[in-house]
Amino acid sequence: MSKLLLRISISRQRLDLLDGASVLQSYPVSTARNGAGEREGSGCTPRGRHVVRAKIGAGLPLNAVFRGRRFTGEIYSPQLAQSNPGRDWILTRILWLCGCEPGVNRLGALDSMRRFIYIHGTPDTEPMGVPLSHGCIRMRNVDVLELFERVPVGVAVSIEE
Fold first, then answer.
1. Please, which residues have CB within 8 angstroms of residue 42's CB and are 6 or more apart in sequence?
2. Which residues contact 20 (CB under 8 A, 6 or more apart)?
3. Contact in structure between 94 and 118 (CB atoms under 8 Å)
4. What is the C-alpha radius of gyration for the chain, rounded to an integer number of angstroms?
5. Global pTM?
6. Second label for 160, Cα 20 to 30 Å away, from 5, 35, 49, 56?
7. 134 belongs to the catalytic site
8. 120 noted as active-site residue
9. Domain of life here (predicted)?
10. Beta pairing, strands 48-56 & 4-9
11. Rounded to whole angstroms, how far apart are CA atoms 6 and 19?
12. How far apart (Å, rounded) are the C-alpha atoms in residues 146 and 96?
């Protein structure tokens, strides 16, 4: 019986898809520019045990643009980016995380879900392996699409420094 787990390493800037102790796939990611932290408004990536609470974007095209977890009808392009400077692009798919540890990453000002912490796609021009996000875990669009298809809602996620 398979026991899937997503393990995110902030120091390595990697997301590993594991089945038990076996690494099935390893992806480069980009976590928060502000480092690790749980407080609302910190712009940090929260640590600890989480689960994927919701999967958003099934069936949408690669580079689909989301705002407020809803497809805007736009498909990301360099021209769209040029006309929207400074926009934090959430593309292709969203895996919305929910913390599992009250007082650490769940409830109050430390709640990962209320902070809208996602694993999501980002423009291919954005570097991976470099912490640049506003708190989320950014991935290449083809990688987040593959991961989205492989993991169910409720899959465990461990975020560690």
1. 34, 135
2. 2, 3
3. yes
4. 15
5. 0.96
6. 56
7. no
8. yes
9. Bacteria
10. unpaired
11. 9
12. 16
| Non-local CB neighbours of 60 within 8 Å, separated by 6+ positions | 71, 92, 93
* Chain segment 11-28, per-residue pLDDT in tens: 999 999 999 999 999 999
Q: Which two tokens stand for residue 144?
A: 């987040």
With tokens 């423009």, the residue in question is 123
Report the number of secondary-structure helices (H) and strands (E) in the chain: 2, 10
Q: Determine the length of the chain.
A: 161
Q: Which residue in 98, 100, 120, 134 is the catalytic one?
A: 120
* Residue from 44, 50, 98, 136 carrying the catalytic annotation: 136
Instruction: Report in angstroms the alpha-carbon separations of 154 from 4, 43, 82, 140, 142.
Output: 10, 24, 37, 22, 22
The single residue listed with the structure tokens 């006309």 is 83
Place of tokens 């769209």: 80
Q: For each of the domains in the chain, give its residue range(s) and CATH number, in order of start.
A: 4-160 (2.40.440.10)
pLDDT at 86: 86
Nearest to 69 by CA among 56, 78, 50, 82: 56
| Centroid of chain to Cα 91 | 11
For residue 146, what are its two tokens?
A: 């593959």
- Measured CA to CA, the distance from residue 116 to residue 67 in angstroms comes to 12
